[in-house]
Specification:
331 residues; alpha+beta; Aminoglycoside 3'-phosphotransferase, Chain: A, domain 2; 2 domains; 5-stranded antiparallel sheet; 12 helices; globular
């Protein structure tokens, strides 16, 4: 069923702002067919409120290995925010009367999310040196958050991820020696299990909001949250694909491993060995490479016609170059 989002937001403005409130502005910001992000403004007698609507444009797929409902996202944002993590304030979780389908509303946070600007724009020179430590501190707050009960979050471990992505890789029919070698190496170096924690699941430069004066001000995009090894979140932000042209700065293109780990420890996170982080970093490059490969294959076989698919698909060679370096260095 087609939803007139702007019309529904006009009605929601009255619900959120009360009598006399009106929708002053609304527009879609980004998102694909399955997920939409809208910015809108509510005006009331006392002023204006800038908000973000996050809604699912396609039916929820319970068979998706990492998919969680938007109400679950909102619950996790609230829970981690209560532990001190910088997150947007959740203003409202939509119900049937709102006519928006599966959706929630959060306050708009000012800042920058474009990774290339974070690593190179002079506006961030003053805070860039402290960003890796901040990321470690925030990850400790997220990992210390007890997941709200009955959310049904999936549990992930290193061996399970290798199995899952190798199955995806084999299904493509591709034969890429570097990916084959990475699977073999990682299977021989799976770290011992640790007590699992709540993970953001996509903690990386590009999903974080930064301010030129304050540094990290908001953690966004919680749709891949799950339970697992805390080093997984650390390894993902260290994956070279999220360094935006600064391979010399392993944490997000702006910092060093030592600062990330020091910030994590200072905020109460339990000790994490660098070798464990680098295992998940290597697995991150392998995982992203396979995701890029499947995006290209979906375009090549005609399933997807978006030009975005083959453009992202080209990046599989980038991940192979990353893996060669990591394999030479070892964990």
């Amino acid at each position: 069923m087609t939803v007139d989002v702007a019309d529904a937001l006009a009605r929601l403005a009255l619900r959120l702002g009360g009598e006399g409130a009106r929708l002053a502005d609304a527009g879609r910001l980004s998102g694909g067919a399955s997920m939409e992000t809208w910015g809108f403004v509510i005006e009331v007698a006392g002023g204006r409120e800038e908000l973000i609507l996050r809604r699912r444009g396609a039916p929820f797929d319970p068979d998706n290995a990492r998919s969680i409902r938007l109400a679950t996202e909102a619950a996790l944002i609230r829970a981690t925010g209560a532990r001190g993590a910088p997150v947007p304030p959740v203003r409202h979780i939509c119900d049937e009367t709102d006519g928006l389908g599966e959706a929630y509303v959060m306050g708009r946070v000012g800042g920058e999310t474009l990774g290339k600007r974070i690593v190179s724009d002079p506006r961030f020179d003053a805070v860039r040196g402290g960003l890796a430590r901040q990321c470690g501190q925030v990850l400790a707050q997220i990992h210390a958050t007890p997941p709200p009960p009955d959310l049904g979050l999936k549990t992930v471990d290193g061996l399970g991820e290798l199995d899952r992505y190798e199955e995806v890789y084999r299904a493509t029919g591709a034969a890429r020696p570097i990916l084959e070698l990475a699977f073999q190496y990682l299977r021989g170096h799976v770290p011992d299990p640790v007590a699992p924690t709540l993970l953001h699941g996509d903690f990386r430069n590009g999903n974080l909001m930064f301010d030129p004066d304050k540094g990290l001000v908001a953690v966004l995009d919680w749709e891949l949250s799950h339970i697992g090894d805390p080093a997984e979140d650390m390894g993902w932000i260290c994956t070279n694909s999220w360094r935006f042209g600064r391979p010399d700065r392993p944490v997000g293109g702006f910092g060093d491993y030592a600062d990330l780990l020091a910030g994590y420890a200072a905020a109460g996170g339990r000790a994490v060995e660098l070798s464990r982080v680098r295992f998940w970093q290597m697995l991150g490059s392998l995982r992203w490479g396979i995701m890029c490969l499947t995006m290209y294959m979906s375009w090549a076989n005609g399933t997807e016609r978006s030009v975005e698919r083959p453009m992202i698909g080209r990046r599989v060679s980038e991940t192979e170059a990353d893996l060669v370096v990591l394999l030479e260095q070892g964990l």
